[in-house]
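ARCHIVE CARD
Drawer: 12
Card no.: 0347
Subject: one protein chain, sequence and derived structure
Cross-reference: see card 0346
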Amino acid sequence: MNKRNIFLGLSIISIFSLILTILIVQPALDLSPLSSDDPDWMAIETTLRTYAEIKEEALYTLDDSRLVEVLANDPRGGFVDPVFLKRVQWMKGNADLKLEEVGFLDTEQSRYAFERKVKELYETAIASGEVAVPTPPPYDPSANPVSEDIRGTDLDPRMHYQPDVHIVPEVKALEQETGFLGRFPPQMPDKIVPIGFKILSISVKDDLAYAKVDWDYGLCEDILVNKNGNWYLIGHKVIVWHSG
C-alpha cells in the first residue's frame, strides 16, 4: 500500500468520524436546559410526583385509572423492554402486536390489568372452594418487634402477608401466557409513602423533555412529551440501579 492510498484511507476515516460526531453532538446542541424555577420544570416535577403517588397507591388497590393523566404512548419515548410485549398483547387481545407499537402507558396499564386478573382468578377459586381459604401465619412480636414509627407502614412486617396465588391452575396458565408471575396485592397500610425522587437536570427540544432523575431505586433517564400544555411521561430508563 503506497502513501497515497494510506492518506486516502485516513481521510475517509476522518470524514466518517466527523459525520458521526455531528450526528451525535448536534441533537444535544439543539437541547435547551431548564432551570428549576422554570414553569416547565415545575410542571414536569408535578407529573413525576403524581406518577409516583398513583403507582404507590395502585400497588395495593390495583387501580390504574389515573395513569392516563401522566403517561402516554409515543414512539419517541424509545422501545419498551421486549419482556413486556406478551403481557401487552394479552391485555389488548392482539397476539400480532409488534414491539414498536407498544408504548410506556401500555406497559404500565398491562401490569395492573394482569394483577387484577390474577386477583380475580384467585378470589373466584376461593369462593368456589377450589382452594382453601388461606390462614396468615401468626405474628410473634418477640421475634420481630414493630416499633411505633413503622406500624401500619410498608416497613411493618404484618402488612406483607400475601397468599400463594400460584396454586390456582388458571393463574399458572395466565403466567405462562404473559411471562410474568402473579401476586396478590398486600394490605394497604395506614400511611402510604410514594417513591422519592430528585430531578437533576431537564433539557427540552420542541415538545419533548429529557430529564435525568434520581429515583429512590435508581438513576433514570425520563422522556416526557408536552400535549396541550401538559407533560406526559413516555419513556423511563434506569441507567444505574441503587443498591439495597
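Annotation on reverse: Residues 20-26 have pLDDT under 50 and may be disordered. The first strand starts at residue 32 and ends at 33.
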